[in-house]
Amino acid sequence: MEIELTWAWLEGYPALDFANTVIRRGWTEYELVTSVDALSSWLDAAALPAPRPTTVTDDDLQSFLPLRDAALRLLRAATGHGDWHAADVRTLNEALLDCPEVTVLETAGSVVSRTVGSPAPFSLLLARLAAEVRDVLAGPRPDLALCDAPGCGQLFFQRRTNQAWCGPPCGNRARVARHHTATDN
Ligand SMILES: [Zn+2]
């Protein structure tokens, strides 16, 4: 199945924009970052916690995907979907340790984050994305949720208590799917 590459659902939270790079069509999941071009298009659309690297390579894609997979599993596990794996925590922490940063004093009342050494722009971006995911998981954020509707499966932050769907269209699709299941039986 050919999936049209749009990023219409990205919501401007780096940790979630990072994780929401697979999508459900029906109940089947599809990888959206299937090429360097797709990665580049995501970089243009997503909320990035570091400067956008001017170019990306296949090596960047190969380091993006395992970290994204770990982040996605951990964030899903935090919403009660799937298991929390120590190996995923190690993957996340390795990205952080790859690119250490120190908070230094800039002027009275303001600090700034400085990298140790001169990391490649893409490594810095991955480390900052890992830090965003760490902060959501360490929060903890009780408003983190997974929209378990057919055709969605996206992680989102609830805007009201017990919000089940990321938006009304997902609620409608889930109700229609439930209705079909009920009438099929
Ligand atoms: Zn949804």
Automatic annotation (TrEMBL):
InterPro entries: ABATE (IPR010852), ABATE_dom_sf (IPR023286), Znf_CGNR (IPR021005)
Lineage, uppermost ranks: Bacteria, Bacillati, Actinomycetota, Actinomycetes, Propionibacteriales
SUPFAM superfamilies, A to Z: Jann2411-like
Superkingdom, taxonomy of origin: Bacteria
Membrane-traversing stretches: none
Zinc finger CGNR domain sequence ranges: 145-180
Protein name per Swiss-Prot or TrEMBL: CGNR zinc finger domain-containing protein
Pfam families per UniProt: ABATE, zf-CGNR
